[in-house]
Specification:
Structural class: alpha+beta
Helix content: 55-70%
Number of strands: 6
Order of helices and strands: HHHHEEEEEE
Largest sheet: 3 strands, antiparallel
Number of helices: 4
Radius of gyration: 52 Å
Strand content: 5-15%
Shape: elongated
Oligomer: single chain
Length: 199
């Protein structure tokens, strides 16, 4: 083989490589162009955002107005309920006082009868009647007399003033004497009983 034939063979093999490169470049260009066309199509599909500023401002103004109205209504409600609550506290005891007025009238009549009374027994009976009337009225309102004498000392109901030696073994740690009665109002301690406890 001669040198020329060798060169021609090398040139023949080199051409296809160049062509391959050209083909590859063309394919890459086509792919890039396709992507560009796809993105441009996508951009065209999105509609342009049209903002109506006047409409938005009107909506904001409407919402502000509603908020102010709601706030003022709540403020009026709060003031009204506070006023009603204060009035309720002032007049809460009026019903009870009205019912106590009849007992006060009984005491006034009893005081007048002292001036001319000669029978002490009748005066005593009058006071017993007034006392029982007052107790019945208070019982209707939920007041209960605490029965403490002879019961076991309980700090939930009793307040010990002093301790003394128990007269009998049964009265140890029990209430020997009641100095001041205790009262319950609807089952809740209104006033603790002041008691003397046996030790």
């Amino acid at each position: 083989m001669t040198k020329q034939t060798k060169k021609s063979k090398k040139e023949d093999t080199a051409l296809p490589e160049e062509e391959l490169k050209k083909v590859e470049n063309e394919q890459v260009k086509e792919i890039v162009e396709e992507e560009d066309t796809e993105t441009s199509v996508e951009e065209e599909e999105i509609p342009p955002c049209e903002i109506d500023i006047e409409q938005l401002e009107a909506t904001i103004a409407d919402l502000k107005d509603k908020h102010l109205r709601l706030f003022s209504e709540f403020d009026n409600y709060r003031k009204r309920t506070t006023k009603e609550r204060i009035e309720l506290f002032k007049t809460a005891s009026s019903e009870m006082i009205i019912e106590l007025l009849s007992i006060l009238d009984d005491f006034d009549r009893a005081e007048k009868s002292f001036e001319t009374a000669t029978d002490i027994e009748a005066v005593k009976q009058g006071f017993v009647l007034i006392h029982s009337k007052l107790q019945n009225l208070l019982a209707k309102k939920g007041l209960e007399n605490m029965d403490s004498l002879g019961k076991k000392f309980n700090t939930d109901f009793h307040e010990a003033i002093t301790e003394i030696p128990a007269p009998t073994k049964k009265l140890k740690s029990k209430v020997v004497d009641v100095v001041e009665k205790g009262y319950l109002l609807n089952g809740k301690v209104l006033r603790f009983a002041k008691v003397v406890v046996g030790k």
